[in-house]
């Protein structure tokens, strides 16, 4: 009934006829909604929604679909073996020290900080091809997967603090155990879609997405330590934002057959071609400059949510920001997101009411040139998480029914 009331209001405001389906158990029943007297257009939920109408529809429906209170689970993942630079394992502590728990508590969320996961280095973990620490990373991501799955299954919004970006393999996979229809927004300077066959460095934090995608299942060799998982995400359910440093190995057009170990069998083409061939929607920094961040987010959310309202997983690498804003990170690239662009991304994701899990990774307190750089980067990470959970740039508003009046003892102190 509440949904119908909202749609009647929508019809009156926009002069449209709305058709949709209500799921009742295993059946889908068509429901027709009254057309306003001036209605001349019809709306089909299978069609792409664009512009102001799209934004209004999502904001109108979200209050019906996601109006129950929820809590936040913070999971620290102090892990660095997905790349070779030490220090990123101290990222969770730096973000907490910057006031994360206090900030989220002020947003009136029930906050559960479950502390840090405990990772063990294997005594013997030989390279696979030129990939370092494959079994250690595989075990770590499996541990993260279980923790995130438990948190989401308990009804929390999961916030995973990295640690390097290889941890997202486990975070997104664990989320997918509970929400198989999720979609993924990957905010990063890098595509992280290398395979062991194409990666120049071999570092697994640059291969995270390749482990997830079903379309790359026959392109990935059997990496030791990852037998616990299978690809679970379709390319159409992924959007990149902020790309500006794509490795040469990612500029590969994958053939229809399985990739052989001979790199000469692969055809090098621009990175935009590989992403388009896989059906991946992406926005480089040039696209953001050209379109503006508002339009980028409109297209992103239309692409992911038009077919179905579903849980969002946000995986945010702090190096998506310009190094002037986030200097304490391992792979900074000039020309990144401004503060306003980055916060707008998370604000719009929050406004969908569909954020279910989030990663904030690659804060490295041993880099950046000193304590001030670390504090700047960690504080930015807190801002990103808080805005994804509802903090507005107007400020956090304390609920208060009326303006307080002066008390008697206060009057006595006045001159």
Q: What does this 3D model show about the protein?
A:
There is one protein chain. The chain has helices at 2-14, 51-65, 91-97, 100-106, 134-153, 168-178, 208-212, 271-277, 285-291, 293-305, 339-352, 371-388, 408-413, and strands at residues 16-24, 27-32, 41-43, 71-77, 111-116, 156-162, 183-187, 238-243, 252-253, 267-268, 281-284, 312-317, 355-361. The strands form three sheets. It has an eight-stranded parallel β-sheet with strand order 5-4-6-13-12-7-8-11, sandwiched between helices. Strands 2-1-3 form a three-stranded mixed β-sheet, with helices on one face. Strands 9-10 form a two-stranded antiparallel ribbon. Helix 1 (2-14) runs antiparallel to helix 2, helix 5 (134-153) packs parallel to helix 6 (168-178) and helix 11 runs parallel beside helix 12. The longest helix is centred in the middle third of the chain and has 20 residues, at 134-153. With 415 residues, it is of the alpha/beta class. Residues 4-50, 59-69 and 248-272 have low confidence and may be disordered. The radius of gyration is 23 Å and the shape is globular. It contains 13 helices and 13 strands.
